[in-house]
TrEMBL record:
Disordered: annotated segments: 13-33
Alphabetized InterPro entries for the sequence: Leu-rich_rpt, LRR-containing, LRR_dom_sf
Protein name: 12849_t:CDS:1
Compositionally biased region (Low complexity): 15-24
Coiled-coil segments: none
Length: 595
């Protein structure tokens, strides 16, 4: 019925048998498995295959660019990548980290073309690339018209005054870059002049790091002149620039008129006591600076006295870093005593770093003598300060009465011994505020004492959270029950002379009425007190919260303002006990993480 047709009559090649196929694959499997991957181009038979192959090439090129492997990319592949991104505002390269790549001029041309394209790059890290001369000039020219890059890191390159001049031209043109890091380069006073002139016109740079360059006195003067004009920069790092006393005086004068700077780093500039005096004079009038870093400046006890006295007139300083400053070097505790008096009677600073100063036992007694009165100090770092048992006892005594300190570092004070750690553990059984403490457990009984301290800190963390939650619940209830402004917003009902609190109602039943406002105030007060079932708040705090709720002026305030004004202090609930990180606790961080 059916005509038998042979395979060969159809004009098709005969296929191999199963046995032939398997034996053939065995012969060539070893050779092919380790060879270069076959190109798909010669197998393309239709448009779909071509699209797939093109997509694969673009993705491969994208991966090479992301890693900075421009040597693996051809001009055609790179152009195809940019063409695929045209008009799409792709975020494939939002952050490019090209550290340690030693980019060549040819590779910088690729990167420059990328920066001119529609591809979005917001963070560009080019540190440690030995960039200078023509390669850097090529990149800076490309950035003049770029509207995406917000963070530019050029630290640890070979940037000199010549490149700083090109960088100044960029800052005059570019209106997008907010953070610029050029630390650990070779920028001198002429380079500082070009940068300063550009920053007098620039209105976008908020963070500037010039750490470890060669600015010297004249460069410091140029920067100071810029700070008198610029009102955009909030954070500036001028550490290790040999600014000397003359440069520091000019910068201090600039601080008296500057109204934008929040963070200033002047570490390793040999301020000495006279430099500290100049900075102190500026702090009496400056109202915006919150973070001041002065490590390794040899300010001594006299410098600390100047700062402590000046801060009595300051209410904005948050963090003061005085690490390695030869304080109490000769056994004198005058500087520490002045800081102790400041902490006893004033609201600043909120965090203090005295690491690697010879505070000693007498210094601890002077520093902590009045801390039980302080409600605002959050963190104090006393690592490597030669503190022994007597100093630890002074700290422990203060902790029993203090209810504000959140973090305490006593790292590398080996003379504390077992008894010192035990004193702290016993003090923390009474202290209810401390949430973090750094210690060295290098003795046999460390486990028992360590567990006791850990339990106390954990208890304090949860207790603080409960205080805040209870305070907020009482405030809400008090607003409803007592606040006249809230009462006036409740709809009046016939037969009722005063406003009432509405409850849930149904169509079948009338609305229920709870006339809280007609109860005697003493009963209302007891109802609100009952919300604090675990008695985590004092009677004074409860009364303060109720009075707050009754004031019309407090409506619209946020939680931070509420808790600060009713509980005296507010500390953000965070798992990071290092509320104010410093160089001492961030060893190994990049230039971008310094401040």
């Amino acid at each position: 019925m059916f005509k038998k047709v042979s395979i060969s009559s159809l004009g098709l090649p005969r296929s191999k048998s199963l046995n032939e196929t398997s034996s053939s694959s065995k012969k060539h499997s070893t050779a092919k498995s380790y060879g270069a991957p076959l190109s798909l181009d010669r197998f393309l038979t239709n448009e779909g295959h071509r699209i797939v192959a093109s997509f694969q090439r673009v993705k491969q090129t994208q991966g090479h660019v992301q890693r900075g492997h421009f040597h693996k990319v051809t001009e055609k592949d790179f152009d195809d990548l940019l063409k695929s991104c045209k008009g799409t505002a792709t975020r494939a390269f939002e952050t490019l980290n090209y550290e340690y790549l030693n980019l060549s001029h040819h590779e910088c041309k690729f990167l420059a073309k990328l920066l001119k394209s529609d591809v979005i790059v917001k963070t560009l890290k080019l540190s440690r690339n030995h960039l200078a001369g023509t390669p850097l000039k090529t990149l800076l020219k490309a950035l003049r018209k770029n509207t995406n890059v917000k963070v530019l890191d050029l630290s640890y390159n070979l940037i000199t005054d010549t490149e700083a001049k090109w960088l100044g031209k960029l800052l005059k043109k570019n209106k997008t870059i907010k953070e610029l890091y050029v630390s650990f380069n070779r920028i001198g006073s002429d380079g500082a002049k070009h940068l300063s002139k550009a920053l007098e016109e620039n209105t976008t740079i908020e963070r500037l790091s010039l750490e470890s360059n060669r600015l010297d006195v004249q460069g410091g003067c140029y920067i100071a002149s810029m700070l008198k004009v610029n009102n955009t920069i909030k954070h500036i790092h001028l550490g290790s620039n040999n600014l000397q006393l003359a440069g520091i005086k000019e910068i201090s004068n600039a601080l008296k008129v500057n109204s934008s700077l929040v963070s200033l780093s002047l570490d390793v500039n040999n301020l000495a006591s006279e430099g500290a005096k100049s900075v102190s004079e500026a702090l009496k009038t400056n109202k915006t600076l919150t973070h001041l870093y002065l490590p390794r400046n040899n300010i001594g006890d006299q410098g600390l006295k100047y700062l402590s006295k000046a801060l009595l007139s300051n209410t904005t300083m948050t963090y003061l870093d005085l690490e390695y400053n030869n304080i109490n070097k000769d056994g004198s505790i005058e500087g520490i005593e002045s800081m102790g008096k400041l902490l006893e009677s004033h609201v600043v600073p909120r965090a203090l770093n005295l690491t690697n100063n010879n505070v000693g036992n007498e210094g601890c007694v002077a520093l902590f003598s009045g801390i039980h009165k302080n409600k605002t100090l959050e963190s104090i770092i006393l690592s490597h300060c030669n503190i022994g048992l007597d100093g630890t006892r002074a700290i422990s005594k203060a902790l029993k009465d203090n209810d504000g300190l959140q973090n305490l570092s006593l790292h590398r004070n080996s003379e504390m011994g077992v008894d010192g750690h035990l004193e702290l553990a016993q003090a923390l059984e009474k202290n209810t505020s401390l949430k973090g403490i750094q210690l060295d457990y290098n003795f046999t009984e460390w486990e028992t004492i360590g567990n006791s301290i850990h339990q106390s800190l954990t208890r304090n963390h949860f207790l603080q959270r409960e205080k805040y939650n209870v305070a907020c619940r009482i405030e809400i209830a008090a607003r409803i029950m007592l606040n006249v402004s809230v009462k006036q917003q409740l709809p009046p009902f016939p037969g009722n002379s005063g406003p009432i609190l509405l409850m849930h109602s149904t169509p079948d039943s009338p609305r229920k009425k709870l006339e809280f406002t007609r109860l005697p105030f003493e009963i209302q007060e007891q109802i609100l007190f009952a919300i604090d079932s675990n008695h985590v708040l004092t009677n004074l705090q409860l009364i303060t919260i109720i009075k707050w709720a009754m004031k019309r002026s407090t409506l619209g305030k946020n939680m931070k303002e509420f808790l600060t004004e009713t509980l005296s202090t507010y500390y953000p609930l965070t798992n990071d006990v290092r509320l104010w990180p410093t160089e001492a606790t961030d060893v190994g961080g990049s230039a971008m993480e310094r401040f």
